[in-house]
Amino acid sequence: MNCKKVNELLIRYLEGDLKEQEKSLVERHLQECKKCLDELALLKEVLKMAKLEKIPSLPEDYWAGYSARLWQKLRSRAQHEIGSEWVRSLRWAVPVFALALFLFIYFSRTVPERESPTPFSPAKAPVSVVQTTPVSKGSIQAKSLPPATVKKSVSVSQHCTLLSLADSMDQFYNPVLDTTEVIDRLYAQAVDIENALKETEEKDYLNLIDDLTYKERQELIKKIKALL
Amino acid sequence: MSNLSDSEVQELLSRFLKGEEQAFTELVRKYQKKAYYFAYRFTHNHQDAEDLSQEAFIHAYRSLKKFKSRSSFFTWFYRILVNLCINFHRRRSVQVYVPVEDIAVSDPDALSIVESKELGMKIHRAIEKLPLRQKAVFILRQIEELSFEEVSESMGCSVGAAKASYFQAVRKLQKYLKGEINSKSLTGSKK
């Protein structure tokens, strides 16, 4: 057996992991080879020194409190996990709620208005002095594409593309526009009522009557008669 | 590894599984030092050693219901700890510095102390260079003095694989240290 082979077997020799035949061969080689014997001494020293790493000696207080600190960690983890469960459920709940809200607003604002006039319609208002101008659904298109600019700088195909883009934007903004329309109308009616009240307080309602159309004046007369 | 006999550990485990948390505290008290020292040998840092050893207990607490008693509790627990330590090293790719003061020597002779410390430092730096699994096997076998069967259970491998890892680790140490340790320092440390 040569030195290289013996060197490879030294650790197994120390661990008692060699078969009888291998063991006797190694022992015979070690009796004859000083170099390999030194290798064995070095290996033993290395293994002995590896055990001698100084571990900081910790006070008994540290060990006494070890399990308490562990329980504290376990409990705080458990609490944190309960919190995480909530956050996890909210992560789904928030978008679902937002979607539901959006759909609710969309259907409640668009569908009834197309089918029947809102209760705040100027036509039905008791006193309608100023006719409001509802926001046009094409206003975004109009804003984003001023005709003059389109004629000067945009080709026909580009114009078409932009128009279709504006249309799709318009569709997207439909519910928003409808809502804005209602708000505008309500605001205008509130202003009308406020003005009417002011004029009534100032006993200047004759001016108010002057502003009414013939039809409105007839309706007002009917209502006054009914009240009397 | 522990003063607790297998039957005592089994009793603590069955008490814990019946809902008695005090039984787990008793298990922790029995194994806390071993867990801490193993983690310390891996990390050479007090805080990391405490965190890793406690994390291993937390893992054990949560998965004790899955423990089948096919292996002993401590090798099962060591397996958790070894994996945590290896993952910790992989995440951080820590280069551990072993201070000279951390090498214990019993020889009172001043020159011998210095030489032993120097040799010890070289050995521990060489251990740090080992691949993580080989390092774990080396610590379990050589420092914790576990049998190869216990090392294999702790590492989740066969006895043959555990032996092969250990022998490879030792051969690598020999190789690393060949140029570092001359006969003089070896003689000095032997005085």
Low-pLDDT runs of chain B: 187-191
What is the count of distinct domains of chain B?
2
The CATH topology of the largest domain in chain B comes to Rna Polymerase Sigma Factor, Chain: A
Corresponding CATH superfamily of the largest domain in chain B: RNA polymerase sigma factor, region 2, helix turn helix motif
Query: Largest interface, with Cβ-Cβ < 8 Å?
Result: A-B, 32 and 42 residues
Got a strand count of chain A?
0
Q: Helix/strand-derived class of chain B?
A: mainly alpha
**Inertia-based shape of chain A:** elongated
Describe this structure in words.
The complex is a heterodimer of chains A (228) and B (191). Chain A is mainly α and 228 residues long. Chain A has nine helices and no strands. In chain A, helix 2 packs across helix 3 (34-50). The longest helix of chain A has 56 residues, at 60-115. In chain A, 8% of the residues are buried. Mean pLDDT of chain A is 73; it is low at 120-133, 135-145 and 148-152. Chain B contains nine helices and no strands. The longest helix of chain B has 23 residues, at 21-43. Chain B is elongated. With 191 residues, chain B is mostly helical. Chain B has two domains: 1-94, Orthogonal Bundle (Rna Polymerase Sigma Factor, Chain: A), CATH 1.10.1740; 101-191, Arc Repressor Mutant, subunit A. Chain B has helices at residues 6-17, 21-43, 46-63, 73-92, 110-129, 132-143, 148-155, 159-178, 183-190. Mean pLDDT of chain B is 82; it is low at 187-191. At the A-B interface, helix 1, helix 3 and helix 4 of A face helix 2, helix 3, helix 5, helix 6 and helix 8 of B.
What is the element layout, followed by pairings?
The complex is a heterodimer of chains A (228) and B (191).
Chain A: H1 3-15, H2 20-32, H3 34-50, H4 60-115, H5 139-144, H6 147-153, H7 156-201, H8 205-211, H9 214-227
Helix pairs in contact in A: 1-2, 1-3, 2-3, 4-7
Chain B: H1 6-17, H2 21-43, H3 46-63, H4 73-92, H5 110-129, H6 132-143, H7 148-155, H8 159-178, H9 183-190
Helix pairs in contact in B: 1-2, 2-3, 2-4, 3-4, 4-7, 5-8, 5-9, 6-8, 7-8
